[in-house]
Each structure stands twice: as structure tokens, then as C-alpha cells.
Amino acid sequence: MKKNRTEEDVYILAIESSCDETAAAVVKNGREVLSNVISSQIALHTLYGGVVPEIASRKHIEKINQVIEAALSQASMTLEEMTAIAVTYGPGLVGALLVGVAEAKAIAYGAGKPLVGVHHIEGHVSANFIEHPDLEPPFICLIVSGGHTHLVVVKDYGEFEILGRTRDDAAGEAFDKVARAVGLGYPGGPKVDKAAKEGNPYAVRFPRAKVEKAPYDFSFSGLKSAVLNHINHARMMGEEICVPDLAASFQYAVVDVLVSHTVEAARELGYRRVAMAGGVASNSALRGEMRRACKKAGLELYYPSPVLCTDNGAMIGAAAYYEYINGARSGWDLNAVPNLKLGER
Ligand code: KG4
Ligand code: ZN
């Protein structure tokens, strides 16, 4: 709900369509979410075992106007009352991104509002600002999504120093692939998370990859292969696979590496605050283990509510606010950049 407006208040209508969620939100002054509407395509893509880019784009086109109207109406605000229009322009699926970018440009141009292109990953990191008014840079952030795994120092709003990244699969990608291999289906992360609750994380000892001379880098393809080998071996021997034990053991191997790298980086570099971002940050074991490790190391830990970890418009509105007050404006030639790197504009 809208609250007593002052001249300086900044209201941002933010649009997100980089993958399989069509989302829009109204965010006040970067940290107050007035509405956050998400239309998920998960049910549709489940039929195919993963996101089908062409279907995603088509669905975004169908839904985007409704989602934006709902976001404005739930915030009890009009387009005219918005200070700026923000949109994710990369990274992501090019056709999916283009729907949001074209829509945002048309709305901003038509309403005479400034346009702010937002980096999707900067959005994920900024989701932390929404529920934690005390959180300000600098801090260490572990970014774990379906397409990205980065360990960074958030030096300032929108300013990142990359400490480490995955050399192969992203953490979420590993969850999705393992889920498919054991027949849990799409989207894999939440299904592995749920199955693992009934399993023994010590049932199978899977490898934890270390990348030589890059202590903060990650690698998950060896782990994924180890899980696939384990499944194939069991099948060949006619042994039954205990899905909960396998899910818990795989998840423990991922979580172990994510937590140890993050806490080690905070300790080595002298940061007291640690945050997590991205879809995998909603994983219950990761949240639990990171909480335990941070407490032990005397670090303060922040993470968004699950709905703000996975793709949403509010996080884009939060990131856009800091871009906007720093003077960032996009031109009418703003384009989708599917492989936009972190720290690039
Ligand atoms: O951040 P996100 O919504 O989209 C990208 O930007 O990629 O992340 C989606 C990823 C998927 O791989 C999904 O399986 C994973 O996050 N994920 C999870 C959980 N919820 C979503 N992984 C592990 N545990 C979860 N609870
Ligand atoms: Zn995302």
C-alpha cells in the first residue's frame, strides 16, 4: 500500500522476465515492496523436464501486461505516479529478456519516464536489502542460482569484486540435473531439498572439488558425474537406489563447499557480514549450515525470504533504486544481453 508521499520518494515499477517467471513489482525507495506479482511458468515447463526457451518467451508475451497491471493495482498506484521504469536486461534467455525489455521501453517512452536497465544478478543480491534495513555494503555475498555461482564482495551498491566463480555447472544446475537423474523432475532444487529431509547426508560420500590456485572457485560437474556413476553402478548391480539418501548426500556435498568457501573468504578478507542470494539460497540445508557456520565464526548472516530468493520483480526494483539515485539511465536502444557478465554494464 502507498504511504504518505514526499517529493524525494522514488517509486519504481520493475519488470523481470529473464527465465520462466513473468514478474513485476512496485518498490518504494529501494527497500519497501508495495507489490510483487509473479506468474510462474513452472507447470508448463515441467512437461518437458526443463525450461523451453520458445515457450517461455511466448508465455511472457501473454502474461506481461496482466502482471504489470496487477503490480500497479496491488500497490494502489498508477503508472503516472512512478518515478522510473526498471527492467532486467541480462543475463538470461534472449527471447525471454526481450519481452521485458521491449515492454519496459514502450511503457517508459509512452509515460515519459526514465528507463533503468538492471543486471539480473545485481537484482538477486539486492533482494537482501528488502527485508534487512540494517544491511549496507560492504559485505561478502554468495550468489547461487540456476545459471550462476559466484562468491563476491559487494563493495558498494552495484559494485562487485568477484572472489570466485564456478568453473563449470552452476549450483542450481547441478541440483536440476541430479533431480532429473533420480526421477524427481523439474524444478530440481526444491524437489531435492524436500527429498533430502528424509535422507541421510552421510549415506554416500561424494567428492568436494577444489580448484587449484583458486581457493574461492567452485566446480560441480565432477560431483554431478559422481552421482550419475553411483546411480548407473547401482542399476547395473540391480540394487535399489534410496532417493532420499542420495539427495541428502549430494546436497550435503554442495552445501559443504558453498559454506566453507564463503566463511573462509569472510575470515581471510576480514568481513563481518555475509549474505546469500539466488534460487539456491532458499535451500533449507544451505540456510541451516550457513547459519551454523556463521554463528561459529562470529559472522552476521543475511538471506532473503524464499520468495525473494527465486526470480521476482521486487529484487529488480531494489537494485534499480540504487542505480537510479546514482544517475544510471538507459537509452531507448537498451537491448537484451543474454550473457551479461557480473560487473558489466
Ligand atoms: O535464481 P533463480 O530463480 O533463477 C536463476 O536466475 O537461475 O534460481 C533457480 C534455481 C534452479 O536451479 C532451482 O532448482 C534452484 O534455483 N532452487 C533450489 C531451491 N529452490 C530453487 N535449489 C536448491 N534448493 C532449493 N530449495
Ligand atoms: Zn535468477
If you had to describe this structure to a student in words, what would you say it looks like?
The protein is an alpha/beta fold and 345 residues long. 44% of the residues lie in helices and 19% in strands. The chain contains 11 helices and 10 strands. It has helices spanning 42-46, 53-74, 94-111, 120-131, 171-181, 188-196, 221-236, 243-269, 284-297, 306-309, 313-325, and strands at 11-16, 21-28, 32-40, 84-90, 115-119, 139-144, 149-156, 159-165, 273-277, 300-302. The strands form 2 sheets. The protein has a 5-stranded mixed sheet with strand order 3-2-1-4-5, sandwiched between helices. α9 (284-297) links the parallel β9 (273-277) and β10. It is globular and about 65 Å long. The chain starts with 10 loop residues before the first strand and ends in a 20-residue tail after the last helix. The model has no long low-confidence stretch (mean pLDDT 96). Bound molecules: 5'-O-[(R)-(carboxyoxy)(hydroxy)phosphoryl]adenosine and zinc ion. The site of 5'-O-[(R)-(carboxyoxy)(hydroxy)phosphoryl]adenosine has 20 residues, from α5 and α6. The site of zinc ion has 4 residues, from α4.
Describe how the helices and strands are arranged.
Layout lengths: L10 E6 L4 E8 L3 E9 L1 H5 L6 H22 L9 E7 L3 H18 L3 E5 H12 L7 E6 L4 E8 L2 E7 L5 H11 L6 H9 L24 H16 L6 H27 L3 E5 L6 H14 L2 E3 L3 H4 L3 H13 L20
Parallel strand pairs: 1-4, 4-5, 6-9, 9-10
Antiparallel strand pairs: 1-2, 2-3, 6-7, 7-8
Helix pairs in contact: 2-3, 4-11, 5-6, 5-7, 5-8, 6-8, 8-9
Bound molecules: 5'-O-[(R)-(carboxyoxy)(hydroxy)phosphoryl]adenosine and zinc ion.
